[in-house]
Amino acid sequence: MRKRNIFLLVALASAGAIYLNNTSLLSNRPDGKPVVLAHRGLAQEYDRTGLTGDTCTAERMLPPRHDYLENTIRSMDAAFARGADVLELDVHPTTDGKFAVFHDWTVDCRTEGSGETRSHSMADLKNLDVGYGYTADGGKTYPFRGQGVGLMPSLDEVMARFPDRRFHINVKSNDAREGEALAAFLSPLPAERRAALTVVGGDKPLQAVKAALPGMRTLGKKSLTRCLLRYAGLGWSGYVPEDCRGTTLGIPINIAPWLWGWPNRFLDRMENAGTNVYLFGPYHGGGFSDGIDDPAMIETLPAGYSGGISTDALDLVMPAIQRRAN
């Protein structure tokens, strides 16, 4: 009986110590508002039912709430003006040594062109109409046709237009050579400029970026999984595994409450480790989650939450964020 009582006391003391080490009630982190990551800037929404990697989302456009086209300078300007703190954009190498800012692997869906995006020169891509393929009524009307000619920007244009803004640069392939080329593009930038950027993508290009620029923040599925699994095993102690340091984490909103120290102790630990944290929509299996696009989901964030969120519907969620801040 005495041994059993000692065991219970030790167990209770251990549980209490773990609780005290992870409760946000003892965090000094001040209340704030979310850091907002706008996915592709202000973009048209589309029906996500049964999506595959080959689905042409421009043909699934929902009735538009605005006239902005994703991954364009105009869209980025509007997103920052509406309160976005960070923008995600997609890049492909071109035949003339540039990086085109465009989501799709081919130009067939959104433009009147054809072929893989990377098989074109930037000069050729500038001649295409990036609004050509959008339709919300099965092809009866194309409301943006003719309005997107010349609007596909290059990455150097974006960096020149927004020299002080934060971006997530999404490499669309799993080709190490693309990571090497992107690292060569980023290398001449001042260290403080690179610190405002995160490279997102497949494991091979991210490894190439890290090899060339060890301090560069990256976000990939494999590195994220390694971080979260190791933190699940060790985070109760306050320890931050190496895989979680100096990086960017994209965490589904339904996974976050299970992390040791969530929200404020976790955010404090990651901030001290040089890591940015963004919440995504709920994880239901498969790849990355969608963004936090339902304004009602903003109300489920912890009170005073000051970490990041990612959204595909900036125009819908920003009013909810502003109401919550007032």
From TrEMBL:
GO terms for molecular function: phosphoric diester hydrolase activity. Residues 50-321 form the GP-PDE domain. InterPro entries: GP_PDE_dom, PLC-like_Pdiesterase_TIM-brl. GO terms for biological process: lipid metabolic process. Keywords: Signal. Transmembrane segments: none annotated. Residues 1-19 form the signal peptide. It holds the Pfam family GDPD. The keyword Signal applies. PANTHER family: GLYCEROPHOSPHORYL DIESTER PHOSPHODIESTERASE, GP-PDE DOMAIN-CONTAINING PROTEIN. This is Glycerophosphodiester phosphodiesterase.
